[in-house]
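Page 47, continued from p. 46.
Same chain as before, 265 aa.
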Amino acid sequence: MRRLVYSTALLIVLAASISSCKEKVTAQSKGICFDTLRVDTTALLSDSSKAHCSLHLNLIFLAGKEYEGVNDSVLRSGLLAPEYLSLSSYKMTPAEAVDSFINRYISDYRSFYTSVYNEEADDSVATIRYSVDAELRDGRSGITNYIAHVQCDLGAGSTAYTQVLNIDIVHDRVLRLEHVFLDGYEQELGDIIAQRLCKQMKVKNLDALQRIGYFVQCTPYATTNFEMGDRSIRFYYITGEIADRDKGETVVTVPYSALKRLMRR
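Result:
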């Protein structure tokens, strides 16, 4: 059974603020409105089983035809996983795209878990849930932070993580690292992130950081999952990405003062 709610409302993220004697540009100060799209769907694996797939999507999009390109970028930026929507360049409205995603998700669920259920004969092993709840925050001037809280329960295992997008409301685009940092930023930015994580973990250097389980299997790097706040950038590493799973999600906060020479603006 599917329930879809699609409504338009002005979401006041945070009040506009004054920074460095210059008015901060926010979605509110620009008069931007947002659409909220909520979908709840449950699909049985088969008529003969109680195993089922549940999807809960509570998403936000910019309202207005002029923001179609931004919304398309949001949808194809890893907001929904698996990234079915990135497999095609065909542009759809948010409602059409979400409906397409759900249909494909349910189809793949039935295709994969039918064999799992046939082997295990256990409803719980083939019962899954996928949930995404989005919120908006005012970020750096001219940027709205799109925060998606994701929960995946897949039979015997579950995971939760935060997916972050930075919407440039001045240039109408979703920012990537290459929009924010100068060419060749990768190694130095990775080093800076490692230094900040050392400070957060209260250890002296990268060797000490690796001894407690961070960046053991990889060279320090900047994740594409980042949030541009007023005074700093927060880099979100999902569980198991740069450390053992028991350490959970890792968020590294780097002040802009440490990034000045690497940034485009």
